[in-house]
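Q: I have two molecules that I believe assemble together. Could you output structure tokens for the complex as a whole instead of separate predictions?
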Amino acid sequence: MTMRKIQIALFAGCVIYIVLLLAVNENQNDDALIFSAWGTVEETENLVQLVDAYNATSPQQRVKFVHIDHQEYDRKILIQTAAGNSPDVFLLSSTDLSTLAYRGVLENLSAWIAKDTSFHLDSFFPALLKMATIRAQLYGIPVGYTPMVIYYNRRLFRKAGLAYPDSAWTWDDFLQTAIKLTQRETDGRTKQFGCMISMAGYTFVYAFGGNFFDANLQWCQINQPKTLAALQFYGDLAMKYHVTTSLTEKLFTSDQGFRQEAVAMIAAGRWQVPNFARTKLDWGVAPMPRGENASAGVIVYNVVMSKFSQRQQQAWEFIKFMASARAQQQSIKSGNLIPSRFDVAGSSEFLHDTTFHVDNRIFLQGVDNARLWPLEIAPETSYANQKVILDEEMEKAMLGKQTYAVAAINAQERINTILRAERQQTEGKRFWGSRTSFLLGILILAGITGLRIKRRK
Amino acid sequence: MIAPLYWSFVTSLKSPADAFDGRWLLSLEKIYWQNYLDVVKLLPFGRFFLNSLFIAASITILQVFTSSLAAYAFARLRFPGRERIFLVYLATLMVPGQVTIIPLYFIIKYLGWIDQYAGVIFPAAFTALGTFLLRQFFMTIPRELEDAAAIDGASRFAVYWKIILPLSLPALATLSIFVFINAWNDFFWPFIVLSDPEKLPLPVGLTKLVTAHASDWTRLMAGAMIALAPALLVYIIFQKFINKGIVLTGFK
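A: Yes, here they are, computed for all two components at once.
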């Protein structure tokens, strides 16, 4: 073969290959509404079934389910939004909801609810709706939630001669139980920890009557006695009573420790019910212990609409379907979430569902006083930064490098500084974008021009 | 390196109930093949595998081809500003990937390549690293060989095709192997560009076994083991080339 023929063959090969590559373009004209969510195959199976059910009822408004990995969920949605092709409707937890709402990514649903007389919010738990509300506007409709509960190993309880916890147990009962469940080797090493509750985030503080922010979530106010007492109690579990792993000896996650029977009690959400049901463990569920009040830290899952969706009416119809009692009834068997509607949560189908052999009533306790997991924080764009600061300062306290009082003062100061800066920046943007600033600019320009003309003369 | 790999393998053969029993050895009757069957049953694993193979192979072919052409130009052709252009080309290596993600995504969207294989393959088809690596290698080839070919009437392309490429096989093989392994394991860009389950490569598809707070470890490890196999196979088969290539090019 001559060089000329080789060159022609190579060029033709490249052209055919590139044409074939570009020809795989079959979805470009797909006009389906895109609905995205995260989760494992089993977790999203229910969502896929709901989408199928919706498509069966309204074939003209087809919805396509697109899975997005949880670890990079926000990032992909933000990149897609920046390029103007985000999913039309997507699932979002309440913590992420506030961040994206502040960034202007989400459609304000209050306006849609106001003009749609067929949709009412009366059947939803008010505390859950509050978590999807930013500056008095609703940005998501809760389709389910999970409270933090205590999972306990029944076998280890029986072995220690302890009664199973009930809904009346207090944090002091919890501590005494954890002490009795902790077992040590002869050389002093711990072979079985009584508890691991890090997964509960900071929400246990609320049960002690503490808070991290003022009532309006405007300014950080950690430095208050009840909050400090709660944080000290948490720190003492590891450093004083040694009933949980300290930061320096964290050998496993709470999930792993519980499965290995190296930890007797853990805090986690509803998602562990289907997971633990597949193990050989003899496990039970109890509500979080009571403190001064019986509030529960919850993660709320909302359906939200992209502000940039090209099919907003279609998206709203789908959101209404996902929030409907019918859809939530259908989701009961999946076992992943607790219904966000009290008409479904209170139904005998849910209360007496025996799919996973747990008492579903436990998951409903404290929902009226539910607080946002992992903690309630000023819902600004700096949500993640605020939490990182808090984690850093608390970590130093847990390692004994500073007292909780000092940690609280430091965290409070640092968080309020970034909030102040962020709000000043927002105010600045508002001013420069306002009509006043425009008129001021024109006046200055006219003044300068006038002066120049005067000088020339 | 061996210990985590071995742990992953053993975990992939455990039942979900025994996932964290802490044992490093399994008796034959305890081996739980179901994880592998579940992974194949739950996910369109064959499809993910083919997608990965297609994407990784395409990126490898295109990147090695474009890099070798550019490297030849920078190593042998004389044109004004060659060194400066090469420096600017190299400087693109210093730009973090995160900075270019959104502009790149815009370009891909403009070209209509969102959720298309082309959106994953073409941005990876041109790299400064491959060009730099091959240029350094091409510069070690004696010019006399090219001059002799030129005297015999060979064109520039003929010299590149018949003299330079055959003499650069170890460097080309090394680059191909590293590009293939990187493309096979790449997660973030395919994750951002692709959404259609029919087009996902393995690393992105496997995230369907991972959830927010608890993962399906035994199945995840089974999936990871299957995903790892081709990259491991490439490494084992072409180990000689890799060693030789590292010695010749200093590329790791």
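A: One point stands out. Chain B has a mean pLDDT of 86.
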